[in-house]
Write a structure and sequence with these properties.
The protein is of the alpha+beta class. Among the domains are: 1-94, no CATH class; 98-141, no CATH class; 439-612, Rossmann fold, CATH 3.40.50. It has eleven helices and 35 strands. The strands form eight sheets. The chain has a seven-stranded antiparallel beta sheet with strand order 7-8-9-10-11-12-13, with no helix packed on it. A six-stranded mixed beta sheet has the order 30-31-33-32-34-35. Strands 3-4-5-6 form a four-stranded antiparallel beta sheet. Strand 32, helix 6 (499-502) and strand 33 (507-511) form a beta-alpha-beta unit. Helix 1 (2-19) crosses helix 4 (83-94). It is globular and about 70 Å long. The two termini are 37 Å apart. The model is unreliable at 1-16 and 18-27 (pLDDT under 50).
Length: 612
């Protein structure tokens, strides 16, 4: 629901712009608030610079709060004339969403697990059924009850013990991803006295059903840096530190292999990874380093039978390759190629089953799912027919099965959850996102992928959707979205809230600019550090392209980006303001220099390889 409200406000602004409600007469007497200038000299690397607005960093400062309230009041005054439109749009968007919804059940260790929502309730209910979907439902957690009395509530990191008797879970009631882990006895319903605070929320059970491993965070920076071991029915101050990540550019995580044989500590920065493994049957043993960290070496591991499968960029495999090594000889000197590196194919992930290896790849900006039987039979790809689709594997926790579960959607096609039988090559659509209201028909929309030419000659893809019958006359309002950082790919996706734009004549487009991994790893490398400017100029050149091709005009073009994409918005509004009629910068990261020079701020140290 919170996500819906965010989209409602976001798209209301554009719909308001499109409807051209002229409230100039009521706005002439309103002045925008101006933040005070309080010069502060900052010194770093033998250089000094002045930040006039450094004082706004202090979220506890009453003057900062007062200024933000002034900004909010200004916004409310400037948009007061749109209230009826906002209300109508909100109800319209909410009316398309099924409130009493539930996830597709997945089977794990003897139980079907389900997450569902009830009409009028804001939070999920986590439940399970033993052995069969017709069995009696067992409610694990009703977050609607747990959230009472809290302004914010989030349950995460739900983990079930191997004997199915206990559940460890994390709760955040602040909203800063600072969790407290507790343990519930699922047979009695009792919440144990065990309580571990200031953690990431995730935890992993050893096979003894008595030990969990979890990750603590630095209290100042919130960097995940320490892995602890906790025994049931003991105080957290007795927990044992099993790993301390002293390099402040690395974050740690904890997980368990799908084979259930190993517990894994992951330690990673932007460019380098390292793993430690421990047999799940021996929780009091010592974690062993899988492969010591080497600057620039990235790898991830998956266990199967007597081997580990490694997705890695070893030996300058920019787009990654798949390697294999015996579980008792894990150093990189023992790794051998299984799927070699390819210049035109990015290897994104793998999923291991008893009889199949499933590989997720990306080429020409589109993702592909490859099925490879272990018995040597011919491998094959799942067929997808669109150029603006998004397909990826989802919840596949069952190891001994022929069924692969994946999701498929496109800009015009609602998200579907599909079970694919890798043996018979047949599929079953388990669920398709419902668009309520009775007016939606995907055949009313056109999906298109076009290529803009950047100023250095590189072709940049743009995915877009609009109503059928649209004329390319330069008069169409167009919302151009992008992110362009951290190698995050902006895949196309379906949005029922977006229909309120499309049905009012908007074109919605995603610019797949450099800085993401949309066209492979090099696409990311060419949009970071000293090449970061490509991210910004790509977006500007994509904007010029949609104008030149008469999709829109500067009078009707709008730009949107959030966080690091908000930095993108900050640049384009300064570099090319005349191209846009409006810009939305959501939680914009526009103070890069000050932030990256302050290692006390959460996330800073782990991002030196992204920003410098």
């Amino acid at each position: 629901m919170k996500k819906l409200i965010l989209f409602c406000w976001l798209y209301t602004i554009f719909a308001t712009s499109y409807l051209k409600i002229n409230a100039q007469s009521m706005q002439n007497d309103i002045s925008a608030p101006k933040a005070k200038i309080i010069p502060k000299t900052l010194k770093k690397h033998k250089e000094s610079r002045v930040d006039n607005y450094f004082w706004l960093n202090d979220r506890e400062n009453s003057e900062v709060i007062d200024y933000l309230n002034q900004e909010n009041a200004y916004y409310e005054s400037m948009t007061a004339h749109t209230k009826d439109l906002k209300d109508n749009l909100f109800e319209e968007m909410k009316g398309r969403i099924k409130e009493d919804d539930s996830s597709v059940p997945y089977f794990y260790n003897g139980y079907f697990y389900i997450t569902r929502f009830e009409t009028g309730q804001d939070y999920p209910i986590f439940a399970r059924k033993k052995g069969s979907l017709s069995a009696e439902e067992e409610i694990l957690f009703n977050c609607n009850e747990m959230a009472k009395g809290h302004a914010y509530f989030k349950l995460g990191g739900l983990s079930i013990s191997p004997d199915n008797k206990f559940a460890s879970f994390g709760v955040d009631i602040v909203g800063r991803r600072i969790y407290t882990i507790q343990i519930k006895n699922l047979e009695t319903g009792e919440i144990l006295a065990d309580k571990v605070e200031n953690v990431t929320g995730a935890s992993v059970w050893a096979n003894d059903n008595n030990t969990i491993f979890y990750v603590r965070q630095d209290e100042t920076t919130l960097r995940a840096d320490k892995v602890f071991k906790h025994k049931l029915n003991t105080a957290s101050d007795k927990d044992i530190l099993v790993y301390d990540e002293i390099d402040d550019t690395f974050n740690v995580s904890i997980s368990k292999e799908k084979s259930k044989k190993y517990i894994v500590i992951g330690s990673g920065s932007t460019l380098t990874t390292e793993y430690r493994i421990l047999n799940s049957n021996n929780p009091d043993g010592e974690f062993a380093v899988f492969q010591p960290r080497v600057r620039g070496l990235e790898y991830s591991i998956s266990h199967y039978e007597d081997s580990f499968y490694i997705l890695t960029n070893k030996d300058k495999a920019t787009n990654f390759k798949l390697m294999k090594t015996p579980e008792n000889k894990t150093g990189k000197k023992n790794w051998v190629d299984l799927i070699p590196h390819r210049e035109d194919v990015l290897l994104e992930d793998i999923e291991i089953f008893k009889n199949y290896l499933v590989v997720e790849e990306r080429s020409n900006g589109l993702n592909h799912i490859r099925i490879m039987p272990w018995n040597g039979e011919a491998d094959y790809y799942l067929p997808f027919g669109s150029e603006t689709y998004n397909a990826y594997t989802t919840t596949n926790v069952d190891f001994d099965t022929d069924i692969l579960r994946y999701s498929y959607q496109s800009l015009a096609t609602p998200s579907s959850i599909i079970d694919f039988n890798m043996k018979t090559k047949t599929k079953e659509i388990l669920k398709e996102q419902q668009v309520l209201g009775g007016k939606f028909d995907k055949d009313n929309y056109v999906e298109e992928r076009v290529w803009a030419t950047a100023r250095d000659g590189v072709k940049v893809p743009i995915s877009m959707i609009y109503r059928k019958g649209l004329e390319k006359n330069g008069k169409n309002p167009l919302l151009l979205y992008a992110y362009g950082s951290y190698g995050i790919t902006m895949d196309t996706y379906f949005s029922s809230t977006r229909l309120s734009l499309l049905d009012r004549g908007f074109i919605y487009a995603i610019a797949h600019i450099r800085g993401g991994e949309d066209l492979g790893r090099q696409w990311y490398e060419d949009g970071k550090l000293l090449k970061k400017k490509n991210t910004f100029t790509d977006f500007i050149d994509c904007s010029k392209f949609v104008i030149d091709q008469k999709y829109t005009s500067p009078e009707h073009l709008y730009a949107e980006g959030g966080s690091a994409g908000g930095l993108l918005m900050g640049v384009i509004v300064n570099e090319a303001p005349k191209l846009y009629n409006g810009v939305i910068a959501q939680v914009p990261f526009v103070d890069v220099i000050t932030t990256m020079l302050d290692d006390s701020i959460p996330l800073t140290t782990g991002e030196y390889d992204e920003w410098g």
